[in-house]
């Protein structure tokens, strides 16, 4: 027969598992947002009985409201180094069903990412066993690497421009060359240690 002590332990284990489960049942949405300084994870908890709203960005609590009488509405916060504006919209679909949509800078996440793919180039590469994510913002020619804005030096060359920077002890260069076609515009290529890096699709 089990001793009293053993039973207490198992009751506590059950209780801790249950409270963890109870805590997680309010998690209603998870989004991944690729910005210049990295890919950010946004998690949203919505208690449909208490009206509780909790927003986490990269695991860090940004907003917590315990009791809300209004179950629909919106929560606005910022994401990433550039403090990009994000809004979670909570809409009632029918009865007790809710729909959660994320907007970035006033655009739906899908529209924002489509627009972003036109205004930025992203490369993912591995150097010396470390992974790097390099992002070029075409409108400003700012270069980001693993969340840091890089010091760059630009120069004009015969067929376009080159933007030089370094990652660790590796020399990097983004070449901008006209495609010769109006629809394609300028083609940006990342060269690291004389090796061309293929562009990543996010």
Automatic annotation (TrEMBL):
CC per GO annotation: cytoplasm
Superkingdom as given in the UniProt entry: Eukaryota
Functional summary from the UniProt entry: Plays a role as an inducible effector molecule that mediates Fas resistance produced by surface Ig engagement in B cells.
Cytoplasm recorded as keyword: yes
Single GO BP term: negative regulation of extrinsic apoptotic signaling pathway via death domain receptors
Gene3D superfamilies from the UniProt entry: 2.40.128.180
Subcellular location, record wording: Cytoplasm
Assigned keywords, A-Z: Apoptosis, Cytoplasm
Signal sequence range: none
Gene: Faim
Record's keyword annotation contains Isomerase: no
Protein name (record): Fas apoptotic inhibitory molecule 1
Family, as annotated: Belongs to the FAIM1 family.
Lineage, top ranks: Eukaryota, Metazoa, Chordata, Craniata, Vertebrata
